[in-house]
Amino acid sequence: MHRSMKRALAPLAAVALLAAACSGDNGAADGNGDADVDAEPLQFGYVLPETGPLAFLGPPQVEATNYAIQEINEAGGVLGNDVPAPIAGDEGGDQAIASQSTDRVLADGVHAVIGAAASGMSLAIIDRITSDEVAQCSGSNTAPAFTDYEHGGFYVRTAPSDALQGPVLAETIINDGHQDVVLVHLEDDYGLGLAQATQEHLEAGGANVISNEGFDGNATEFSGVVQSVASADPDAVVIIAFEQGAQITQGIIEAGLTPQDIGFYGADGMRSNELADLVDSNDPAVLDGMKGTAPASSDNEAFMEGLADFAELDETQFAPQVFDCVTLIALAAEAAGSTDPVDFQPYLIEVTRDGTECTSFAECRDLLDDGEEIDYNGVSGPLDFTEAGEPEVASIEVYGYDDEGALSTIEVVESAPLE
Shortest CA distance to 111 belongs to which of 142, 69, 145? Predict the structure, then answer.
Protein backbone atom coordinates (compact mmCIF):
# COMPACT_ATOMS: atom_id res chain seq x y z
CA MET A 1 0.00 0.00 0.00
CA HIS A 2 3.01 2.30 0.44
CA ARG A 3 3.76 4.40 -2.60
CA SER A 4 7.32 4.31 -3.87
CA MET A 5 8.74 7.75 -4.56
CA LYS A 6 12.48 7.61 -5.29
CA ARG A 7 14.23 10.88 -4.66
CA ALA A 8 17.46 12.38 -5.89
CA LEU A 9 19.77 12.04 -2.90
CA ALA A 10 22.85 11.50 -5.02
CA PRO A 11 22.52 14.77 -6.97
CA LEU A 12 22.14 16.69 -3.71
CA ALA A 13 25.28 15.05 -2.38
CA ALA A 14 27.13 15.86 -5.60
CA VAL A 15 26.19 19.52 -5.30
CA ALA A 16 27.53 19.59 -1.75
CA LEU A 17 30.80 17.97 -2.85
CA LEU A 18 31.20 20.41 -5.70
CA ALA A 19 30.62 23.34 -3.38
CA ALA A 20 33.25 22.00 -1.02
CA ALA A 21 35.76 21.57 -3.83
CA CYS A 22 35.18 25.07 -5.11
CA SER A 23 35.45 26.70 -1.71
CA GLY A 24 38.40 24.70 -0.47
CA ASP A 25 36.65 24.32 2.90
CA ASN A 26 37.95 21.14 4.54
CA GLY A 27 34.89 20.88 6.73
CA ALA A 28 32.10 20.87 4.16
CA ALA A 29 29.49 18.11 4.04
CA ASP A 30 29.57 15.35 1.47
CA GLY A 31 25.89 14.47 1.77
CA ASN A 32 26.59 10.92 2.99
CA GLY A 33 27.01 11.54 6.68
CA ASP A 34 30.75 12.40 6.67
CA ALA A 35 31.06 14.94 9.45
CA ASP A 36 32.20 18.48 9.26
CA VAL A 37 34.92 18.51 11.91
CA ASP A 38 33.91 22.09 12.71
CA ALA A 39 30.14 21.45 12.70
CA GLU A 40 28.25 23.01 15.58
CA PRO A 41 26.64 20.53 17.98
CA LEU A 42 23.03 19.95 16.97
CA GLN A 43 21.01 22.09 19.36
CA PHE A 44 17.38 21.24 20.02
CA GLY A 45 14.80 23.37 21.71
CA TYR A 46 11.23 22.56 22.58
CA VAL A 47 7.93 24.38 23.05
CA LEU A 48 5.81 21.88 24.97
CA PRO A 49 3.08 22.11 27.64
CA GLU A 50 4.78 22.47 31.00
CA THR A 51 1.67 24.30 32.27
CA GLY A 52 -1.87 24.80 31.02
CA PRO A 53 -4.64 22.44 29.92
CA LEU A 54 -2.27 19.99 28.20
CA ALA A 55 0.28 19.90 31.01
CA PHE A 56 -0.36 16.15 31.41
CA LEU A 57 1.06 15.66 27.90
CA GLY A 58 4.21 17.66 28.68
CA PRO A 59 6.25 15.13 30.71
CA PRO A 60 6.06 12.26 28.19
CA GLN A 61 7.09 14.56 25.35
CA VAL A 62 9.88 16.30 27.27
CA GLU A 63 11.27 13.03 28.58
CA ALA A 64 11.02 11.38 25.15
CA THR A 65 13.12 14.28 23.83
CA ASN A 66 15.71 13.75 26.55
CA TYR A 67 15.67 9.97 26.07
CA ALA A 68 16.28 10.29 22.33
CA ILE A 69 19.20 12.66 22.96
CA GLN A 70 20.69 10.19 25.42
CA GLU A 71 20.42 7.37 22.88
CA ILE A 72 22.03 9.53 20.19
CA ASN A 73 24.90 10.55 22.45
CA GLU A 74 25.52 6.97 23.56
CA ALA A 75 25.90 6.15 19.85
CA GLY A 76 28.55 8.85 19.41
CA GLY A 77 26.46 11.97 18.90
CA VAL A 78 25.64 13.78 15.66
CA LEU A 79 28.57 14.30 13.30
CA GLY A 80 30.89 13.34 16.13
CA ASN A 81 29.52 15.87 18.63
CA ASP A 82 27.34 15.18 21.65
CA VAL A 83 23.88 16.73 21.42
CA PRO A 84 23.44 19.27 24.23
CA ALA A 85 20.43 19.33 26.55
CA PRO A 86 17.43 20.95 24.82
CA ILE A 87 16.47 24.56 25.42
CA ALA A 88 13.12 24.47 27.25
CA GLY A 89 10.02 26.46 26.37
CA ASP A 90 6.44 26.24 27.70
CA GLU A 91 3.50 26.44 25.29
CA GLY A 92 1.19 26.93 28.27
CA GLY A 93 -2.05 26.39 26.36
CA ASP A 94 -1.89 30.04 25.34
CA GLN A 95 -0.73 31.49 22.03
CA ALA A 96 0.97 34.46 23.70
CA ILE A 97 2.92 32.18 26.05
CA ALA A 98 3.85 29.84 23.20
CA SER A 99 5.03 32.78 21.09
CA GLN A 100 7.15 34.21 23.91
CA SER A 101 8.69 30.80 24.54
CA THR A 102 9.44 30.40 20.84
CA ASP A 103 11.21 33.76 20.70
CA ARG A 104 13.31 32.81 23.71
CA VAL A 105 14.21 29.37 22.33
CA LEU A 106 15.12 30.78 18.91
CA ALA A 107 17.25 33.48 20.54
CA ASP A 108 19.40 30.70 22.01
CA GLY A 109 20.39 29.63 18.51
CA VAL A 110 18.62 26.28 18.21
CA HIS A 111 18.73 24.29 14.99
CA ALA A 112 15.41 22.50 15.59
CA VAL A 113 12.30 22.98 17.72
CA ILE A 114 10.27 20.05 19.05
CA GLY A 115 6.59 20.94 19.45
CA ALA A 116 4.25 22.45 20.00
CA ALA A 117 1.97 19.74 21.34
CA ALA A 118 -1.36 21.34 20.44
CA SER A 119 -2.10 21.98 16.78
CA GLY A 120 -3.40 25.45 17.58
CA MET A 121 -0.19 26.34 19.40
CA SER A 122 1.94 25.14 16.49
CA LEU A 123 -0.12 27.17 14.06
CA ALA A 124 0.62 30.19 16.26
CA ILE A 125 4.41 29.69 16.11
CA ILE A 126 5.18 27.81 12.89
CA ASP A 127 5.75 30.93 10.78
CA ARG A 128 8.12 32.38 13.39
CA ILE A 129 10.20 29.19 13.43
CA THR A 130 10.29 28.29 9.76
CA SER A 131 10.84 31.87 8.57
CA ASP A 132 14.02 31.78 10.67
CA GLU A 133 14.96 28.66 8.66
CA VAL A 134 14.90 26.52 11.79
CA ALA A 135 13.48 23.00 11.61
CA GLN A 136 10.30 22.14 13.52
CA CYS A 137 8.87 18.70 14.29
CA SER A 138 5.77 17.92 16.32
CA GLY A 139 4.94 14.50 17.63
CA SER A 140 1.34 15.39 18.42
CA ASN A 141 0.02 17.88 15.86
CA THR A 142 -2.86 16.05 14.21
CA ALA A 143 -4.89 18.85 12.59
CA PRO A 144 -5.35 18.28 8.83
CA ALA A 145 -4.45 21.96 8.28
CA PHE A 146 -0.73 21.15 8.33
CA THR A 147 -0.90 18.92 5.24
CA ASP A 148 -1.11 21.88 2.87
CA TYR A 149 0.64 24.47 5.04
CA GLU A 150 3.40 26.49 3.36
CA HIS A 151 6.51 26.13 5.52
CA GLY A 152 9.33 25.76 3.01
CA GLY A 153 10.07 22.19 4.05
CA PHE A 154 11.19 23.12 7.56
CA TYR A 155 8.17 21.59 9.35
CA VAL A 156 7.40 17.88 9.70
CA ARG A 157 5.23 15.86 12.06
CA THR A 158 5.47 12.27 13.19
CA ALA A 159 1.88 12.27 14.45
CA PRO A 160 -0.61 11.25 11.78
CA SER A 161 -3.21 13.65 10.47
CA ASP A 162 -6.70 13.34 11.91
CA ALA A 163 -7.70 12.56 8.34
CA LEU A 164 -6.33 9.11 9.28
CA GLN A 165 -7.69 8.95 12.86
CA GLY A 166 -11.24 10.02 12.00
CA PRO A 167 -12.03 6.94 9.88
CA VAL A 168 -10.92 4.59 12.69
CA LEU A 169 -13.03 6.45 15.24
CA ALA A 170 -16.05 6.34 12.92
CA GLU A 171 -15.56 2.67 12.12
CA THR A 172 -15.32 1.83 15.83
CA ILE A 173 -18.64 3.59 16.50
CA ILE A 174 -20.40 1.92 13.57
CA ASN A 175 -19.00 -1.52 14.40
CA ASP A 176 -20.37 -1.11 17.92
CA GLY A 177 -23.83 -0.82 16.34
CA HIS A 178 -24.52 2.88 16.83
CA GLN A 179 -26.46 4.95 14.30
CA ASP A 180 -27.53 8.29 15.85
CA VAL A 181 -24.42 10.17 16.93
CA VAL A 182 -23.77 13.53 18.55
CA LEU A 183 -20.35 15.11 18.00
CA VAL A 184 -19.03 17.45 20.71
CA HIS A 185 -15.78 19.17 19.81
CA LEU A 186 -13.43 22.03 20.47
CA GLU A 187 -13.83 24.97 18.12
CA ASP A 188 -10.18 24.94 17.06
CA ASP A 189 -8.10 23.40 14.29
CA TYR A 190 -7.75 20.11 16.16
CA GLY A 191 -11.41 19.77 17.17
CA LEU A 192 -12.88 20.94 13.89
CA GLY A 193 -10.52 18.80 11.80
CA LEU A 194 -11.11 15.57 13.69
CA ALA A 195 -14.86 16.20 13.96
CA GLN A 196 -15.11 16.74 10.22
CA ALA A 197 -13.10 13.61 9.39
CA THR A 198 -15.19 11.55 11.82
CA GLN A 199 -18.51 12.90 10.56
CA GLU A 200 -17.62 12.24 6.92
CA HIS A 201 -16.82 8.60 7.63
CA LEU A 202 -19.80 8.11 9.96
CA GLU A 203 -22.16 9.30 7.25
CA ALA A 204 -20.34 7.30 4.58
CA GLY A 205 -20.85 4.25 6.77
CA GLY A 206 -24.59 4.83 7.12
CA ALA A 207 -24.70 6.51 10.55
CA ASN A 208 -26.45 9.81 11.25
CA VAL A 209 -24.77 12.79 12.92
CA ILE A 210 -27.86 14.23 14.55
CA SER A 211 -26.09 17.11 16.29
CA ASN A 212 -22.71 18.82 16.03
CA GLU A 213 -21.84 20.80 19.15
CA GLY A 214 -18.76 23.02 19.22
CA PHE A 215 -17.43 24.76 22.32
CA ASP A 216 -14.82 27.40 23.16
CA GLY A 217 -11.61 25.94 24.58
CA ASN A 218 -11.47 28.77 27.14
CA ALA A 219 -14.93 27.99 28.51
CA THR A 220 -15.30 26.76 32.08
CA GLU A 221 -19.01 25.95 32.04
CA PHE A 222 -20.63 23.47 29.65
CA SER A 223 -24.26 23.14 30.74
CA GLY A 224 -25.48 24.32 27.33
CA VAL A 225 -23.46 21.64 25.54
CA VAL A 226 -24.65 18.99 27.99
CA GLN A 227 -28.29 20.00 27.54
CA SER A 228 -27.96 19.88 23.77
CA VAL A 229 -26.54 16.37 23.92
CA ALA A 230 -29.27 15.15 26.27
CA SER A 231 -32.01 16.74 24.17
CA ALA A 232 -30.74 15.08 20.99
CA ASP A 233 -31.34 11.64 22.51
CA PRO A 234 -28.39 9.97 20.74
CA ASP A 235 -27.29 6.36 20.94
CA ALA A 236 -23.66 7.51 20.91
CA VAL A 237 -21.73 10.66 21.79
CA VAL A 238 -18.21 11.58 20.66
CA ILE A 239 -16.28 14.09 22.75
CA ILE A 240 -13.25 15.70 21.09
CA ALA A 241 -11.62 17.75 23.81
CA PHE A 242 -8.65 18.17 26.11
CA GLU A 243 -9.07 18.64 29.87
CA GLN A 244 -12.61 20.00 29.30
CA GLY A 245 -13.63 16.48 28.28
CA ALA A 246 -13.77 15.26 31.87
CA GLN A 247 -16.22 18.00 32.87
CA ILE A 248 -18.35 17.49 29.76
CA THR A 249 -18.41 13.72 30.29
CA GLN A 250 -19.38 14.20 33.92
CA GLY A 251 -22.21 16.54 32.94
CA ILE A 252 -23.62 14.17 30.31
CA ILE A 253 -23.56 11.27 32.77
CA GLU A 254 -25.29 13.40 35.41
CA ALA A 255 -27.93 14.25 32.78
CA GLY A 256 -28.81 10.56 32.61
CA LEU A 257 -26.75 9.30 29.67
CA THR A 258 -24.02 6.86 30.74
CA PRO A 259 -21.46 4.68 28.94
CA GLN A 260 -23.51 1.69 30.02
CA ASP A 261 -26.60 3.06 28.23
CA ILE A 262 -25.16 4.66 25.08
CA GLY A 263 -21.82 4.69 23.31
CA PHE A 264 -19.27 7.11 24.76
CA TYR A 265 -16.18 7.90 22.67
CA GLY A 266 -13.19 10.18 23.06
CA ALA A 267 -10.01 10.83 21.09
CA ASP A 268 -6.32 11.44 21.77
CA GLY A 269 -6.88 14.67 23.71
CA MET A 270 -8.81 12.75 26.40
CA ARG A 271 -6.70 9.60 26.53
CA SER A 272 -5.55 9.60 30.15
CA ASN A 273 -5.08 7.14 32.98
CA GLU A 274 -6.66 9.74 35.25
CA LEU A 275 -9.86 10.33 33.26
CA ALA A 276 -12.12 8.08 35.35
CA ASP A 277 -10.93 9.70 38.57
CA LEU A 278 -11.45 13.17 37.09
CA VAL A 279 -15.01 12.30 36.06
CA ASP A 280 -15.97 10.71 39.39
CA SER A 281 -13.29 10.03 41.99
CA ASN A 282 -15.81 8.09 44.11
CA ASP A 283 -16.96 5.79 41.33
CA PRO A 284 -14.37 5.13 38.59
CA ALA A 285 -16.63 2.38 37.21
CA VAL A 286 -18.77 5.18 35.78
CA LEU A 287 -16.60 5.09 32.64
CA ASP A 288 -16.94 1.35 32.10
CA GLY A 289 -17.47 0.84 28.38
CA MET A 290 -16.17 4.18 27.17
CA LYS A 291 -13.81 3.96 24.18
CA GLY A 292 -11.65 6.26 22.13
CA THR A 293 -8.92 6.48 19.52
CA ALA A 294 -5.43 7.95 19.49
CA PRO A 295 -2.18 7.59 17.58
CA ALA A 296 -0.74 4.35 18.97
CA SER A 297 1.54 5.01 21.95
CA SER A 298 2.15 1.60 23.47
CA ASP A 299 2.64 -0.80 20.57
CA ASN A 300 6.46 -0.84 20.83
CA GLU A 301 7.19 -2.82 23.97
CA ALA A 302 10.97 -2.42 23.85
CA PHE A 303 10.72 1.36 23.54
CA MET A 304 8.18 1.66 26.32
CA GLU A 305 10.36 -0.42 28.65
CA GLY A 306 13.39 1.71 27.82
CA LEU A 307 11.44 4.92 28.40
CA ALA A 308 10.17 3.59 31.75
CA ASP A 309 13.76 2.87 32.82
CA PHE A 310 14.77 6.38 31.74
CA ALA A 311 11.95 8.33 33.42
CA GLU A 312 8.98 7.65 35.68
CA LEU A 313 5.88 8.80 33.81
CA ASP A 314 2.17 8.67 34.55
CA GLU A 315 1.33 9.22 30.86
CA THR A 316 3.13 8.11 27.71
CA GLN A 317 0.85 9.53 25.01
CA PHE A 318 2.87 10.82 22.03
CA ALA A 319 6.21 9.88 23.60
CA PRO A 320 7.13 7.52 20.71
CA GLN A 321 6.27 10.14 18.13
CA VAL A 322 8.41 12.78 19.86
CA PHE A 323 11.32 10.35 20.20
CA ASP A 324 11.07 9.86 16.44
CA CYS A 325 11.08 13.64 15.86
CA VAL A 326 14.44 13.98 17.59
CA THR A 327 15.93 10.92 15.94
CA LEU A 328 14.90 11.76 12.38
CA ILE A 329 16.25 15.32 12.71
CA ALA A 330 19.55 13.89 13.93
CA LEU A 331 19.58 11.47 10.99
CA ALA A 332 18.79 14.26 8.53
CA ALA A 333 21.80 16.17 9.88
CA GLU A 334 23.95 13.06 9.45
CA ALA A 335 22.67 12.57 5.90
CA ALA A 336 23.44 16.20 5.04
CA GLY A 337 26.76 16.20 6.87
CA SER A 338 25.68 19.46 8.50
CA THR A 339 23.74 20.72 11.50
CA ASP A 340 22.60 23.80 9.58
CA PRO A 341 18.82 23.42 9.06
CA VAL A 342 19.11 24.91 5.58
CA ASP A 343 21.37 21.99 4.70
CA PHE A 344 19.53 19.18 6.45
CA GLN A 345 15.86 20.08 5.93
CA PRO A 346 15.75 18.47 2.45
CA TYR A 347 16.63 15.17 4.15
CA LEU A 348 13.82 15.25 6.74
CA ILE A 349 11.58 13.36 4.32
CA GLU A 350 14.32 11.39 2.57
CA VAL A 351 15.51 9.51 5.66
CA THR A 352 12.05 8.03 6.27
CA ARG A 353 11.54 6.11 3.03
CA ASP A 354 12.92 4.34 -0.02
CA GLY A 355 16.25 3.27 1.44
CA THR A 356 17.59 0.43 3.59
CA GLU A 357 15.30 -0.10 6.56
CA CYS A 358 16.77 0.66 9.99
CA THR A 359 15.26 1.19 13.42
CA SER A 360 17.72 3.16 15.57
CA PHE A 361 19.94 6.19 15.27
CA ALA A 362 23.11 4.10 15.53
CA GLU A 363 22.02 1.58 12.90
CA CYS A 364 20.80 4.23 10.48
CA ARG A 365 23.87 6.44 11.00
CA ASP A 366 26.18 3.53 10.22
CA LEU A 367 24.31 2.88 6.97
CA LEU A 368 24.67 6.54 6.03
CA ASP A 369 28.39 6.32 6.79
CA ASP A 370 28.53 3.41 4.35
CA GLY A 371 27.00 5.60 1.65
CA GLU A 372 23.55 4.01 1.74
CA GLU A 373 20.16 5.71 1.63
CA ILE A 374 18.02 4.86 4.65
CA ASP A 375 14.40 4.23 5.58
CA TYR A 376 14.07 5.04 9.29
CA ASN A 377 11.28 2.97 10.80
CA GLY A 378 10.66 4.71 14.09
CA VAL A 379 9.56 3.51 17.49
CA SER A 380 6.08 4.85 16.61
CA GLY A 381 6.06 2.71 13.47
CA PRO A 382 7.09 3.16 9.83
CA LEU A 383 6.97 6.87 9.07
CA ASP A 384 7.16 6.83 5.25
CA PHE A 385 6.66 10.58 5.03
CA THR A 386 4.64 12.03 2.20
CA GLU A 387 5.77 15.15 0.37
CA ALA A 388 3.90 17.08 3.06
CA GLY A 389 6.30 15.77 5.72
CA GLU A 390 3.85 13.55 7.60
CA PRO A 391 3.21 9.79 7.93
CA GLU A 392 1.64 8.16 4.91
CA VAL A 393 -0.01 5.52 7.09
CA ALA A 394 -0.86 5.53 10.77
CA SER A 395 -1.17 3.06 13.60
CA ILE A 396 -4.29 4.14 15.51
CA GLU A 397 -5.02 2.72 18.94
CA VAL A 398 -8.57 1.94 20.03
CA TYR A 399 -8.56 2.29 23.82
CA GLY A 400 -11.18 1.64 26.46
CA TYR A 401 -12.02 1.88 30.16
CA ASP A 402 -13.15 -1.03 32.35
CA ASP A 403 -15.30 -1.27 35.49
CA GLU A 404 -12.36 -0.13 37.63
CA GLY A 405 -11.73 2.93 35.49
CA ALA A 406 -8.52 1.42 34.12
CA LEU A 407 -7.32 2.41 30.65
CA SER A 408 -6.22 -0.31 28.24
CA THR A 409 -5.55 -0.84 24.54
CA ILE A 410 -8.30 -2.80 22.79
CA GLU A 411 -6.61 -2.98 19.39
CA VAL A 412 -4.28 -1.14 17.04
CA VAL A 413 -5.58 -0.42 13.54
CA GLU A 414 -3.56 0.65 10.51
CA SER A 415 -5.13 3.57 8.70
CA ALA A 416 -4.17 4.83 5.26
CA PRO A 417 -5.72 7.30 2.80
CA LEU A 418 -8.11 5.86 0.24
CA GLU A 419 -6.41 5.55 -3.13
Answer: 69
Q: Give 115's strand partners.
A: 47
Q: Could you tell me where the beta strands, DSSP code E, fall in 32-132?
A: 44-47, 112-115
Cβ contacts of 172 within 8 Å, gap of 6 or more: 265, 291, 293, 398
Contact (Cβ atoms closer than 8 angstroms) between residue 137 and residue 46: no
Can you tell me the distance from the alpha carbon of 85 to that of 402, in angstroms, rounded to the nearest whole number?
A: 40
Domains and CATH numbers, the chain: 9-161+299-394 (3.40.50.2300), 163-298+395-415 (3.40.50.2300)
Sheet arrangement for strand 291-295? 208-215, 180-186, 236-240, 263-266, 291-295, 394-401, 407-415
pTM of the predicted structure, to 2 decimals: 0.84
- Tell me: the pLDDT tens digits for 190-217? 999 999 999 999 999 999 999 999 999 8
Segment 293-347, tens digit of pLDDT: 998 865 688 999 999 999 999 989 899 999 999 999 999 999 999 999 999 999 9
CB 118 within 8 A of CB 91: yes
SS3 246: helix
Structural element, H or E, at residue 374: strand 374-378
Q: Are 36 and 27 in contact (CB under 8 A)?
A: yes
Q: Which of 242, 232, 207 is nearest to 56 (CA)?
A: 242
Give the model's pLDDT for residue 297. 64
Segment 261-293, tens digit of pLDDT: 999 999 999 999 999 999 999 999 999 999 999
What average pLDDT does the segment 101-110 reach? 98
SS3 356: strand
Three-state DSSP at 210 gives strand
Number of residues that make up the chain: 419
Write out the DSSP string of 294-327: EE-SSS-HHHHHHHHHH---S--TTHHHHHHHHH
CB 165 within 8 A of CB 172: no
Residue 144 class from Cβ within 10 Å (0-12 exposed, 13-18 middle, 19+ buried)?
A: buried
| CB-CB contact of 368 with 331 (8 Å) | yes
The Cβ of residue 399 has, within 10 Å, a number of other Cβ atoms equal to: 24
In 10 A of CB 256, how many CB atoms? 8
Per DSSP, the three-state class of 32 is coil
Helix (H, G, I), strand (E, B) or coil at 191: helix
